[in-house]
Specification:
It is built from seven helices and no strands. With about 180 residues, the protein is mainly α.
Length: about 180
């Protein structure tokens, strides 16, 4: 029983990490596809993602950032696809009639290594973005990143809280979740 709980917690941790990175990537990609009015001069770099707009990034900063962002997206997407494939392989191993614990442990190790690779990519990208921003823009940038991170974690954790039973609701007893 203890082993199963430990395995469940490791899987939950891996899933949360993958969900966080995946959500961040999806949000980043979607934000970049939105358009804002840009100068129509030849050589204009196109739509700036909402995050950069909210930070107050200039068009000159955006021209410098965009190639870095596109390189990051390509690398991150490759790693994201690899971790998702590894997670599917792990689920297949877990679902096997005779689960091979050694293979499961090795797959977990691979997933953690790939997640660490993704985190390294994200950190390097954030540092590159930070270097292009003014001090005021940096402050706003990290405020926005903190807001996004907090919202994502709250949304993920909301699905893990136990639901209040209908008996509790009928008797007027509030669950711990309701008290928050």
């Amino acid at each position: 029983m203890k082993y199963k709980l430990k395995l469940l917690l490791i899987l939950l941790s891996a899933a949360l990490n993958a969900a966080f990175v995946g959500s961040w990537l999806v949000h980043s990609i979607r934000a970049s596809s939105g358009t804002i009015p840009q100068a129509t001069a030849p050589g204009t770099y196109g739509a700036m993602p909402e995050l950069y707009q909210r930070v107050g990034m200039t068009e000159a900063q955006w021209r410098e950032m965009r190639p870095q962002l596109e390189t990051f997206r390509g690398s991150a997407l490759t790693v994201f696809e690899r971790v998702n494939q590894q997670r599917q392989e792990l689920l297949s191993q877990l679902a096997a009639p005779q689960a091979d614990r050694a293979r499961i442990a090795e797959k977990q190790k691979q997933i953690r290594a790939t997640q660490a690779e993704m985190q390294d990519l994200v950190v390097a990208h954030v540092l590159a973005e930070k270097d292009l921003l003014t001090p005021a823009q940096r402050q706003r940038y990290f405020e926005l990143l903190a807001q996004r991170s907090g919202t994502l974690c709250e949304n993920l954790m909301a699905g893990l809280r136990p639901a209040a039973s209908s008996t509790d609701n009928q008797t007027g007893v509030r669950s711990a979740h309701d008290k928050e």
